[in-house]
Amino acid sequence: MGNGSNDILEFVARVFLAPGFNAVFSRHAFAVYPLVSMAVGAKLNIADANALDADMPFGHNLQQMREQVDKDTKVIFIANPNNPTGTWLDENSLESFIVDIPDNIIIVLDEAYVEYVSEPGYPDSIPWITKYPNLIVTRTFSKVYGLAGLRIGYSVSHPEVADLLNRVRQPFNTNSLAQAAALAALDDQGHLQKSIESNDAGLLQVANAFQDMSIEYIPSVGNFISFKTALSGEVVYENMLKAGVIIRPISNYGLVDYLRITIGSKDQNARFIDILKQMPGVVA
Ligand SMILES: Cc1ncc(COP(=O)(O)O)c(C=O)c1O
């Protein structure tokens, strides 16, 4: 268990990375991978992502990731789906990639948004743990379960890997309130279904609005969607903020002038869309 799945990403870095070793991950991948790797002095081997005109624009490119693996690689981070692109990897390509990686390299499959994905071909990764002892799957109660503030996540791995992670884990990392809430959340299938349905409808609502306005966006299977307007990302961010809507510019992810909006309720999404429509210069 981790104080959020973020905590587990840190355990991984502290156990398996050190100066002289490197971590492989994709460009535009979740920002915590470079942070935890740099914090322990490891090198970052960053793979090029898919091009804008690919089927899955800006998604992880497993071939490029494979090419970044060298004799000093100790950890590979894969976000499936990825934040902030909302792109995902299918079962066949992902398993072929895992099979091809030497088993002394840890593969972290970060599934923070797993519950939102209904795409055919999306992997059921937990059974892979028995086949691939170098695989760690991380998940969280922060997203679909809505418990981000309580900080609770977990990983599933080979027992010997879990044992190593537990050696660096603070003994009091998760609190009893968060554990009680997580257990209750697992029993609350109604809430889970409602959150998924609301997110599906919201993704469609926002993507349709982008299409109507000819705004470029990255098709997403997460609970967020990233887009780019004719204005600079900072200007859109500031204008939204003044109108009381907080979205996030993601230039720091190498996605210059893109912004990410988290899917809200129907009314919240509509409010965002209205403000965007009224913003001068948004559409080229
Ligand atoms: C891809 C991904 N992994 C992990 C996390 C960490 O979430 P938490 O520490 O709340 O479980 C996030 C949070 O934004 C994320 O986007």
Radius of gyration: 19 Å
Chain-averaged pLDDT = 97
* Helix share, percent: 25-40%
Give the overall silhouette. Answer: globular
Annotation, overall tally of beta strands: 10
The CATH homologous superfamily of the largest domain is named Type I PLP-dependent aspartate aminotransferase-like (Major domain)
- Largest sheet entry: 6 strands, mixed
Main CATH class of the largest domain: Alpha Beta
Unreliable stretches (pLDDT < 50, length at least 5) are: none
* H-E string: HEHEHEHEHEEHHHEEHEEH
Strand order of the largest sheet: 2-1-3-4-5-6
Q: Report the CATH topology name of the largest domain.
A: Aspartate Aminotransferase, domain 2
Distinct ligands: pyridoxal-5'-phosphate
Number of domains: 2
Strand content: 15-25%
Helix tally equals 10
CATH architecture of the largest domain: 3-Layer(aba) Sandwich
State the separation between the terminal residues, measured CA to CA.
47 Å
Output the structural class. Answer: alpha/beta
